[in-house]
Amino acid sequence: MKAYHLALVRPADPATQRTTQILSSESDVSSFSFFQRGSVEEFLEFFSVTVAERTQVGQRQAVEENDNFAYAYRSSPNLCAIVITDREYPSRVALGLAAKMIDEYTKVHDDRFIDAAQGKAAFAVLKEFIGKYQDPKQADSIMKLQQELDETKVVLHKTMESLLERGEKLDALVDRSNQLSSQSKMFYKTAKKTNSCCIVM
């Protein structure tokens, strides 16, 4: 069981022409080869943004892509937490972690700060969480108080293809992305062809 990536994302607001912004993120890509880590991290951020933009306010969802899951919880128009894990990671722990990430972030940062954010900034709590939540059994014991709440929430399970708009293809989205380097785009295409064990979300 592995948690690869945690991100707090401010989704775009078409009314104000505000763009999507990753406010803070942390990754654990130690299970990948040294040469793949940069590309894997770019894809983790790319898919964090993609899923956050397609998560409605108040919604919790699990989006599957190539044996990995992106768990999303959007608490408000301005804030969405993303937890990307492998298939074996317990969904209840991942979604509980997403809620905890938002709780911790909003204790420190108000709506005005989130609205005005222009770039990604370190948030020490995410670094702590990415280490602590590698063991979901230990993490789950910390979160038992949230169990009843988590189990009563509706969680939508989707695949990445079903999350995309009708006619929108993941390959085209990757090709158009300014967020991914040409090396990462090539990594995605190669990994998809060989169907390797790497994350190609």
Automatic annotation (TrEMBL):
It is a lipid-anchor. GO terms for molecular function: SNAP receptor activity. It comes from the Eukaryota. SUPFAM superfamilies: SNARE fusion complex, SNARE-like. Residues 141-201 form the V-SNARE coiled-coil homology domain. One of its GO terms (cellular component) is plasma membrane. The keyword tRNA-binding does not apply. PROSITE patterns: LONGIN, V_SNARE. It is found in: Cell membrane. Residues 7-133 form the Longin domain. Keywords: Coiled coil, Lipoprotein, Membrane, Methylation, Palmitate, Prenylation. GO terms for biological process: endoplasmic reticulum to Golgi vesicle-mediated transport. This is Synaptobrevin homolog YKT6. It comes from Coemansia spiralis. The gene is YKT6.
